[in-house]
Amino acid sequence: MGKITGFLEIEREDRDYAPVEERIRNYREFVLPLPEPETRAQAARCMDCGIPYCHNGCPVNNQIPDWNDLVYRGNWEEAARNLLSTNNFPEVTGRVCPAPCEASCTLNIDDTPVTIKTIECAIADRAIESGWIKPEPPARKTGRKVAVIGSGPAGMACAQQLARAGHDVHVYEKWAKAGGLLRYGIPDFKMEKGIVDLRIDQMEAEGVTFHYGAHVGVNVPADTLLADYDAVALTGGAEHPRDLPIPGRELDGIHFAMDFLPQQNRRVSGEPLGGVKEILAGGKHVVVIGGGDTGSDCIGTSIRQGALSVTNFEIMPMPPTRENKALTWPDWPYKLRTSSSHEEGAEREFSVLTQAFEGENGKVTAIRCVRADDKIKPVPGTEFTIKADLVLLAMGFVHPVKDGMLASLGVALDPRGNARANTEDYKTSIDKVFAAGDMRRGQSLVVWAIREGRQCAHAIDKFLMGTTTLPR
Questions:
Q1: pLDDT value at 215 more than 80
Q2: For residue 307, which of 71, 86, 154, 354 sits 20 to 30 Å off, Cα-Cα?
Q3: Which of 152, 160, 58 is nearest to 102 (CA)?
């Protein structure tokens, strides 16, 4: 490393946020990048570890020490080339990845990990601004055709890798635009959609064909794809939400998070809602049930829509503010995490069991709750009621939607209801049909979807050609 003693001389410094009172007035990104000198100084903190444990935490195998050193030396273009060799969309992960690499950083033993995510985002944004991200069409075509079903991060990564290998790749997307979760799930204040559009343009220039409004198993017969293509990759999401079947669930005003969030993303982009009933938080007391990233996104969106109050329920006890490093490092720790949306005005309640929804004239007005013990059992005498005009269920997803494509193909499922395939060849039970991302592993992170999409492309290329030069 260029600065062997950097970690001893330079304190950790990370990106900041625009003030709450400013950022909640719009849906633009609000993370404030570090100036270049400070970013390079942060890169100098990388320790030149004998065993770089950040690799243990990074699903896409980013060569983190290498591009940290290149940034420290000011060689941004080479840093971008290195980063893009392992991650198709670092401008995405630099914004929305929870950075398990930082949890695995050796300096995290002291709670001062290298700002890997910030440096990654700086490299990616510099590459975009400098025009270094260009189409990479193949030198020759193989004559093989591949259908990729789903244009989320797994599908996009898979399609891009296969196109660069020379295959004729067609992506089938049921919605009006590509991106999946990146476009319709993640709010614009966390990631503006021009980033997704940039990659779609690049992929089209590389030969990828996108088919929109093409819902395989609904308005596009799945068996037609099997007949027309040499290989098919199933890369849709785990979209079946976990429900809350308690008394009053039928009341108006109780919605799944992924019925709520995509509407706002469509409003921001000017895409028509398609005649669905609008779900809006303005002037309402909102309760978000579920304490993960999706719940956080519901909070930030509700606040921007003008909610009177936002309360976040989590069924689990409040995690510790610090993990026991001796027990958890370098693995991802269980500890309290406060998102930017939580800081914008939400009340967080832990160890809460929701027992029933109450309503008037068919509309939800309140929720009956009780405190839970550490075994998630009700604590007698702790019952309470909270006012609620809008309830958003953000309790995760159980598996892919089985009706339609999976049912018509007859793909075998694993015990959790996901498409059954291993991580060696990504083959399903159906000949020439592969599965990757949340479709195969269940709900997970964007960075895991990118990894699986790349590895699935490697497996498909090897299946079609007998050998492959695509990286895993």
A1: yes
A2: 354
A3: 58
Burial of 326 by CB count in 10 Å (0-12 exposed, 13-18 middle, 19+ buried)? exposed
- Per-residue pLDDT tens over the stretch 282-292: 999 999 999 99
User: In this structure, what token pair is assigned to residue 62?
Assistant: 């980013």
Which letter does DSSP use for residue 380 in this model? T
Where do the DSSP E strands lie in 221-308?
Answer: 231-234, 240-241, 254-256, 285-289
Q: CA 281, CA 261: separation in Å to the nearest integer? A: 11
What does DSSP say about strands 16-17 and 168-173: parallel, antiparallel, or unpaired? Answer: unpaired
Q: Please work out, in degrees rounded to the nearest 5, the angle formed at the alpha carbon of residue 338 by the alpha carbons of 334 and 342.
A: 145
Task: Tell me the three state secondary structure of residue 94.
Answer: helix
Cα 365 to Cα 26, 175, 251, 265, 279, distances in angstroms: 28, 33, 9, 27, 16
Residue-wise pLDDT for 175-202, tens only, equals 999 999 999 999 999 999 999 999 999 9
- Inter-CA distances, 213 with 14, 172, 181, Å: 41, 8, 16
Residue 53 has pLDDT above 90, yes or no: yes
> Which run of H or of E encompasses 80?
helix 76-84
Sort strands 209-212 and 384-387 into parallel, antiparallel or unpaired: unpaired
Please give the angle made by the CA atoms of 471, 425 and 444, to the nearest 5 degrees: 80
β strands within 267-316, DSSP E: 285-289, 309-313
**Tokens encoding 291:** 């304490």
Q: 């309360």: which residue's tokens?
A: 311
Give the pair of three-digit tokens for residue 34: 């570090």
- Return the structure tokens found at 76: 């941004």
Q: What is the DSSP string of 323-348?
A: --HHHHTTSPP------TTGGGT-EE
Longest dimension (CA), the chain: 72
**290-319 burial by CB neighbour count: b if 16+ within 10 A, else e?**
bbebbbbbbbbbbbbbebebbbbbbeeeee
Nearest by Cα to 403 from 389, 414, 413: 413
Q: Is 146 helix (H, G, I), strand (E, B) or coil?
A: strand
